[in-house]
Amino acid sequence: FFFLMIRRPPRSTHCISSAASDVYKRQVQLEQTYDEITASRSVEEWLKDIENEIGVTLQRQFELAMQKGELKAVQQIKQLVNKVKWTQCVEDSIKEKTLSSAFDIFNEKVKSLAARVQDPLTSDAEKIEHTNMVLVNIHNKEVIESLQSLEVSSSSDYEWQSE
Q1: Please, what is the angle between helix 99-118 and helix 124-149, to 10°?
Q2: CA of 85: how far to CAs of 9, 13, 91, 139, in Å?
């Protein structure tokens, strides 16, 4: 059986053990089980099935959280999906040698989210969520910029793997 674990980063604390104990964990079992690799399929196909199932599971969990009004879970899932999309975008950009394009994409995301934060019609809750996403995307931009300056050319390079 595979489980998808959604983690909330610890709050700022001065003590490592306090930070570790502050991590919120939530395990969600995938709809389908993937107990073994059959001889007729490659590992890559099996992993792709699991990746697809994680997407289906995240979508289902998002819908359930929305129905129940669990705003923390909704925000966690949004952040997780954003991280997965960012990772895929950067991996594709590294393979295609277009990291500068990825930087531009996330630069535009930051501008767009910042405009939403400043919009007087945006609710306070949305402003908080958008502000968090601005910070995440600023970090994403900085990582891409660092990868560019280090001249990362493969998704197997240490500098990318260590992110």
Answers
A1: 160
A2: 19, 29, 10, 14
- Alpha carbon 113 to its chain's center: 17
Full DSSP string of 4-46: EEEEEPPPP-S-HHHHHHT-EEEEEE-SS------TTS-HHHH
**C-alpha count within 13 angstroms, C-beta hemisphere, residue 139:** 10
Phi, psi of 5 (to 5 degrees): -110, 125
Give the DSSP letter string of 47-63: HHHHHHHHHHHHHHHHH
Tokens, residue 19: 């930070």
Burial class (CB in 10 A: 0-12, 13-18, 19+), 90: buried
pLDDT 10s digit of each residue in the chain, 163 long?
Answer: 445 554 444 444 444 333 333 334 455 566 566 555 455 667 777 777 777 777 778 788 888 888 888 777 777 788 888 888 888 889 899 999 999 999 999 899 899 989 989 999 888 888 888 888 889 889 999 999 999 999 999 888 888 888 7
CB atoms within 10 A of CB 113: 20
CA–CA separation, 38 and 17 (whole Å)? 42
